[in-house]
Amino acid sequence: MKKKMKKKKMKKKMKKKKKKTKKKMKKKKMMKKKKKKKKKKMKKKKMMKKKKMKKKKKMKKKKMMKKKKKMKKKKKGQKKKKMKKKMKKKMKKKGQKKKKKKKKTKKKMMKKKKMKKKKMMKKKMKKKKMKKKMMKKKKKMKKKKKGQKKKKTKKKMKKKMKKKGQKKKKKKKKTKKKMMKKKKMKKKKMMKKKKMKKRQKKMKKKNKTLYSDCVYLLEVNIMNNNHNTMTS
Q: Which residues does the annotated region (Disordered) include (predicted)?
């Protein structure tokens, strides 16, 4: 009995699953059909647009052909030449040549601007590299021994600076040295002033002590004189 019941349950489950799967499959098929219909509609629209565009082009061609035929029917010779001249003049008046020239000039100006920017960027990069190199060389020069080796390296550096056109940097160095000298001179003057003030203070103190000693001696002398007069 149990086995039969199990079999029945299994059959029911299988039936339910089949129904569900069938429903899902139907839905999928319906969705696919809808998509296909949409695609067909879109294709039809595109085709209709293309047909309309073709018709327009054909109409334009027909009009152009009619105009050409009319022009051909006109008298030959001087009239034709006059018409050609008039057409050329009209084209010139409309300023189609000016437009071409403007386009060319714009392109040239844009190219020149780009080239200038590139050159400026290259110059900046070169200056930065030169600064870095100079800083490295300065550090090396400081580490080197003093004396004749230092002088030789300085001469070499001066020659290189002249070749590379870095006279401005030399001027900056000179101005820096002058400023440093001025600062040192100011410091020296300040130190001298301080020393002079200290000396003056010391001299004042010494003078005060000397004055007090002199007063004391005078008082002692006066006392002695008084004593001598009293004894006499």
A: 1-208
Determine contact, residues 134/169, Cβ cutoff 8 Å. yes
**CA distance linking residue 181 with residue 111, whole number of Å:** 51
> Are the C-beta atoms of 164 and 130 separated by less than 8 Å?
yes
How many angstroms separate the CA atoms of 228 and 222, rounded? 10
Q: Would you list the domain boundaries of the chain?
A: 200-232
pLDDT of residue 185: 93
Query: Is pLDDT of 232 > 70?
Result: no
Determine the Cα angle at 43 with ends 37 and 46, to 5°. 145
Q: In this structure, what DSSP letter does residue 165 have?
A: T
Tell me what the mean pLDDT of segment 123-150 comes to.
Answer: 85
Written as six digits, the tokens of 230 are: 């009293």
Residue 50 has pLDDT above 80, yes or no: yes
